[in-house]
Design brief:
The protein has 370 residues and is α+β, with helices and mostly antiparallel strands. It is built from 8 helices and 11 strands.
Length: 370
Amino acid sequence: MKVIRGTIITIVIVFMLLMSIAAPAAFIGLAIFLIGLYLNNQHRKYKINFKKSGWIMAAGFILSIFLATADSDVNETVNEPEKVQIQSEKNEADKKAEEEKLAQEKAEEEEAKKQAEEQARLEAEQEEQQKQEEAEKQKQEQIQAAESLGLELVTVGRVVDGDTIETSDGSKVRLIGVNTPESTTRVEEYGKEASQFTTSELTGKKVWMQKDVSDTDRYGRLLRIIWLDIPADDMDEGEIRAKMFNAHLVLNGYAEPSTYNPDVKYSEYFREFGREAREANKGLWVLGDEGTTKGDLDSKAVSGSSSSSGKSGSNDSSGTAGNSTSSESGSESYKNCTELRKVYPNGVSSTHPAYDSKHDRDKDNYACER
């Protein structure tokens, strides 16, 4: 019985001691309990007359529990702001961590964007460089192709009339193999339309000039074929139709084919194009089968003069003046230069049927020139 009583008391003391450690105020109850235990031992040992020691122990135990509970509530109440503060600090830390994470993600996105932009820039530069290299290669190929065909790049400054232009450096150029109606010193039907067409097509444009045989005519004008683009084969009909401006004039009915030796490289093409335009009633051919100026397709056309002649068609008419004669062989005779100039205002060369040495006073193989 004593062992059981001692065990219970020991358990109670240990329990109260633990409560006191958790809540220091419970030490008061423990102290009262120990006082009651002491008095109880004294009563049992020395028979002291103090019978209520058990109540003191019970009171100490109850007080210890009460104080421990109260102290715990106080601690919880006291610690509540700390808990709030701790929670707030935790929330702030979480928020800061989230902000740092977002900032890091944003920085990574910006870095990735920068890298993408840099990569795009490098690719664009490489592409531009490739384009420049390709353009330079094409330019060199064009130069080589132009040199092989004897082409010269020029810029058209202004248009004199349908078949005569002036380059930006002031050189006048007479188009070979074609004759548009007059639109300057005198006007022939469809001359203004031909001049307007050439003006709209060539003014300010870069074109390629090609010499046949002759370099200039007697007026110092360059005698040239005009190419709008470099042909792969300058004798291919498809290329001539598509890229040669002289051919465009004939094909669209703005000019008649007009051949003058020795510049005859494209004469057969021009005659073919002229017949094609005449059959289709294009341009000047609408006004009649003889066109509106002189050319190879006239019913009484005379073989052309030398390339040193002046304006094609201004000295190759098959018509005659009132005081002229015409033989069966096609030769023409005029009494004097006054009569000859009524038909050929600029005179005629030595290869022309109307040439007569008596009209060639300066013996330059050109009669009645002005």
